[in-house]
Design a protein that fits this description.
GO biological process, one term: 'de novo' IMP biosynthetic process
Number of strands: 21
CATH topology of the largest domain: Rossmann fold
CATH superfamily of the largest domain: Methylglyoxal synthase-like domain
Radius of gyration: 31 Å
Strand content: 15-25%
Number of helices: 19
Shape: elongated
GO molecular function, one term: IMP cyclohydrolase activity
Family: Belongs to the PurH family.
Oligomer: single chain
CATH architecture of the largest domain: 3-Layer(aba) Sandwich
Protein name: Bifunctional purine biosynthesis protein PurH
Catalytic activity: (6R)-10-formyltetrahydrofolate + 5-amino-1-(5-phospho-beta-D-ribosyl)imidazole-4-carboxamide = 5-formamido-1-(5-phospho-D-ribosyl)imidazole-4-carboxamide + (6S)-5,6,7,8-tetrahydrofolate; IMP + H2O = 5-formamido-1-(5-phospho-D-ribosyl)imidazole-4-carboxamide
């Protein structure tokens, strides 16, 4: 076997974008182009001379095209270590030529899954040979350049033009991208087949989580932190930006709470206003403008610079009222004709979003300095009067407000206390380190509106002090989950003060 061999580039791509120019460029730098089936035909029709894989292996594609490149001649040419005696002996013995470049894009499993294809068609889009080629080339990156991203084609040719070869550093970079490509591909197959087969991803199972960057952000919570938005490949982003400035990292943190609010209140025409990841106003109304005005009245100071979510289509009157105050985001499931255009002209920086409030990932994954915490992303079932217990006089006449207060507490940072009156939050105390301070703040914020209101707590009262504060402020009914060792003390105090207290509302901590 001659010492000097013609350099070979094996090209096997599903997506033909840009491949003709890359093949011509490689050929111009002395590479023999090796390919098969659809890729070979595409290149030959474009004027590239191609050596067919079958001419190297002596075997045609078999099993309906399932096996083409999985052959010792091909895999050996990729994996052979230059200069290693054993590998050189095997190559000479079995007439295995070296392959120096592998270019590969994989079968479109993700696109097929998104299209709703039946299981048999989905399985046929699981690439076997391509993944094997990529992994082999990436493993042998010291000797082989592996190209898996169309965006790197121009860089490959530029590297050859400038240096006539590929540096080790460049091949290392390409190999890491290749391993990332196959890891992501396999994880998408796992998620897609789980979905197709109806198998849930459980909390306690090892996690396979492909993430695709949706948007690079200017910075994170603070300017010294880099940040980006990612989505699982098979999931649809739950919002579409219709106008306004680019979304920031902090906007997206707030938007999580807003989407939760729009989800829990979607049974009514409601408005949620969020600031620093916790609600500062919630309300329901007959119309969007009524819901917005009532929500804004809860804490107009905090609402300034916050974000707004509506559960119903936004009309022009509501849009005009919203623009009277500075907000970062207005989100809704839809907008009446002409509203978005009005907002673009009136408030060009206001981010206007069309949302899918029902979207919720099954699992919530939080990375911190302890590791990654995984939990189901769901609220407990709504409280039912038949499943809890009234202490004091039952107040079914206040149940709508009680449930609205419970829902608001459920999306508010813990410790959370919420006062609601006539379908609107009038006081929200969230993110406090003790429940008494949360109650005092909510009552202070409500002022005279506390009289005749109902109170919700996201967890049990450890002492009777918050109940005493509620009574003093004029609160007439309370919902809390119960579960404290001092429950009887709290219940007895409520009855003594004439408060109606419902226990059984389920804890809804949000840290």
């Amino acid at each position: 076997m001659e010492k000097m061999e013609t350099r070979k580039a094996l090209i096997s791509v599903w997506d033909k974008t840009g491949i003709l120019d890359l093949a011509k460029g490689l050929a111009a730098h002395g590479y023999e182009i090796v390919s098969s089936s659809g890729t070979a035909k595409h290149l030959e029709e474009g004027g590239v001379t191609v050596t067919e894989v079958v001419d190297m292996t002596g075997l045609p594609a078999i099993l309906g095209g399932r096996v083409k490149t999985l052959h010792p001649t091909i895999m050996g040419g990729i994996l052979a270590r230059r200069g290693l005696a054993q590998d050189e002996e095997d190559r000479e013995k079995f007439n295995i030529p070296l392959i120096d470049v592998v270019v590969c894009t994989l079968y479109p499993f993700e696109e097929t899954a998104k299209s709703g294809a039946e299981l048999d068609k989905l399985i046929e889009k699981i690439d076997i040979g391509g993944v094997s080629l990529i992994r082999a080339a990436a493993k042998n990156y010291c000797h082989v350049a592996v190209v898996t991203e169309i965006g790197d084609y121009a860089r490959v040719l530029d590297e050859l033009e400038k240096k006539q070869e590929f540096t080790l550093e460049f091949k290392q970079e390409l190999a890491l991208k290749a391993f990332r490509c196959t890891a992501s591909y396999d994880s998408i197959i796992y998620r897609g087949l789980c979905r197709e087969l109806g198998i849930a991803d459980e909390v306690d199972g090892d996690k396979v989580l492909p993430l695709r960057m949706e948007q690079k952000l200017r910075y994170g919570e603070n300017p010294h932190q880099q940040a980006a938005l990612f989505m699982p490949p098979l999931e649809q982003r739950p919002f579409e930006q219709l106008s306004g400035k680019e979304l920031s990292y902090n906007n997206l943190l707030d938007l999580d709470t807003l989407l939760r609010g729009c989800s829990v209140f979607q049974d009514s025409c409601a408005c949620t206003i969020v600031k620093h990841t916790t609600p500062c106003g919630t309300a329901r109304g007959e119309t969007p403008i009524e819901a917005f005005k009532k929500a804004l009245a809860c804490d107009p100071v905090s609402a300034f610079g916050g974000i707004i979510g509506m559960t119903r289509k936004v009309d022009l009157d509501t849009a005009k009222t919203v623009t009277e105050t500075f907000f970062e985001i207005l989100a809704a499931p839809d907008f009446e004709e002409g509203v978005v255009e009005y907002l673009k002209e009136k408030k060009p920086n206001l981010r206007v979003l069309k949302i899918l409030p029902g979207y919720a990932p099954k699992l919530q994954i939080l990375g911190n300095r302890c590791g990654f915490l995984v939990q189901e992303d769901k609220l407990p079932a709504l409280p039912r009067q038949s499943e809890g217990e009234w202490h004091g006089k039952p107040r079914p006449d206040l149940w709508e407000d009680i449930i609205f207060a419970w829902k608001t507490a459920a999306i508010t940072k813990s410790n959370a206390i919420v006062l609601v009156k006539d379908g609107a939050a009038v006081g929200i105390g969230g993110g406090f380190t003790n429940r008494v301070d949360a109650a005092e703040y909510a009552i202070k914020l409500a002022g005279d509106k506390a009289k005749g209101s109902v109170m919700a707590s996201d967890a049990f009262f450890p002492f009777a002090d918050s109940v005493e504060l509620a009574h003093k402020a004029g609160v007439i009914a309370v919902i809390e989950p119960g579960g404290s060792i001092r429950d009887n003390e709290v219940f007895e105090k409520a009855e003594e003060l004439g408060l109606s207290l419902f226990a059984g509302g389920s804890r809804t901590f949000r840290h």
